[in-house]
Description:
Distance between the termini: 23 Å
Helix content: 10-25%
Largest sheet: 3 strands, antiparallel
Shape: flat
Number of strands: 3
Mean pLDDT: 83
Strand content: 25-35%
Oligomer: single chain
Low-confidence stretches: none
Amino acid sequence: MPTVSGHMITVEDNGIGFQTNTNDDPHIALQNICARLKVVGGQLMISPNASKGTKVTITLPKNS
């Protein structure tokens, strides 16, 4: 996934984290968020770690 330059929002925790989807069921809400961000030139990145928390980064492009 290419990196988008612009305004970045990062939320990170050190909780129990979560498992990535292993049964092929879609994450509809996350797919919708990714699609909407893509329309405006943004990006959503989620870095789960099952035992060390999760990091979510949303990047929005700068207005010209």
